[in-house]
Specification:
The chain has 153 residues and is of the alpha/beta class. It has a domain at 47-91. The chain has helices at residues 13-22, 50-55, 93-104; strands at residues 2-4, 6-9, 29-33, 47-48, 63-66, 69-73, 79-83, 89-91, 110-114, 118-126, 129-136, 140-144. A hairpin with a 3-residue loop joins strand 11 and strand 12. The longest helix has 12 residues, at 93-104. The relative contact order is 0.24. The structure holds flavin-adenine dinucleotide. Flavin-adenine dinucleotide binds at residues 9-15, 32-35, 43-48, 117-118.
Length: 153
């Protein structure tokens, strides 16, 4: 059975960014993504705040636009208009999801399993060590437990 220190479920913006932050550690990281293409299916309008843009050092090439106002329309056609000092970015959301994946994919301590779904997990003991046993659509994986975890054997 394969062993990892961390398993991140979902190779979208949060999962890929977390893997990126952890890539400098000596932990062995697995990222599981049920879709075979990162960023797809495309399901987001791509509006992001200045705060997020600063946090992830958003590259200009994936910025499509910046806006001053937003009009939120419900299915009945009623709408509200929002405006303020924020000037959010409209980004290419697929490119955003791929941004940190591209940085991570050659990291020696990160493994991506795409087209592979997390099915279940359970706590267990392996070689006397507490662990999390994960079942994906393709395999079983052993994730190390950490001393501070609240896991009960
Ligand atoms: C129509 C729409 C428009 C939106 N517009 C905006 C917007 O303009 N601005 C904004 O800030 N937010 C918007 N959002 C919300 C935004 O998309 C989410 O907040 C954001 O994508 C969350 O990122 P995430 O990485 O946490 O999760 P997600 O982007 O939801 O990614 C989760 C990932 O986990 C994978 N996954 C899930 N379960 C499993 C499993 N069991 N095994 C393996 N992989 C799994 C999924 O395939 C997916 O890739 C919008 C959402 C929708 C639906």
């Amino acid at each position: 059975m394969e062993n990892f220190d961390i398993c991140i479920v979902g190779a979208s913006i949060a999962g890929n960014y977390l893997a990126y932050l952890l890539s400098k550690s000596d932990m062995k990281i697995l990222v599981l993504e049920e879709h075979k293409d990162i960023g797809l299916p495309f399901q987001c309008a791509g509006i992001i705040s200045q705060k997020l843009a600063q946090l992830i050092q958003l590259p200009e090439e994936i910025v499509l636009n910046r806006v001053n106002t937003a009009k939120l329309v419900n299915p009945l056609g009623n709408f509200i208009k929002l405006s303020g000092k924020e000037h959010p970015y409209i980004v290419d959301r697929i490119a955003l999801d791929r941004l940190f994946y591209e940085k991570n994919k050659n990291a020696t301590n990160i493994t991506y399993y795409l087209d592979e779904r997390l099915r279940s997990f359970k706590y267990g003991i392996e070689n006397g060590q507490k662990c999390v046993l994960i079942e994906t659509s393709k395999r079983f994986i052993n994730i190390k437990d950490f001393p501070m975890s609240s896991m009960v054997p």
